[in-house]
């Protein structure tokens, strides 16, 4: 990882990742998925429809990962 990025507080790095993800998701129409990716997404959607488990917010997951490092 770029040392300048490491110098940023974790909270700011997480925000940067969120901002990047938001910019990607806003352009999602330009993304194409392979058949295997579509099957994987369908599998996750079906699993959600069965148990309605929304999982954890991304920020919580990222912070937990950071605590493990």
Structure characterization notes:
With 69 residues, the protein is mainly alpha-helical. 72% of the residues lie in helices and 0% in strands. The chain has helices spanning 3-7, 10-26, 35-51, 58-68.
List descriptors.
mainly alpha; 69 residues; 72% helix; single chain; 4 helices
What's this, in brief?
The chain is an all-alpha fold and about 70 residues long. It has helices spanning about 5, 10-25, 35-50, 60-69.
What is the typical, i.e. mean, pLDDT?
88
**Which structural class best describes the helix and strand composition?**
mainly alpha
Please state the CA-atom Rg, rounded to the nearest Å.
Answer: 16 Å
Strand content: under 5%
Sketch the major β-sheet: none
Order of helices and strands: HHHH
Fraction in helix: over 70%
Overall geometric form: extended
How would you summarize the topology of this molecule?
Elements: H1 3-7, H2 10-26, H3 35-51, H4 58-68
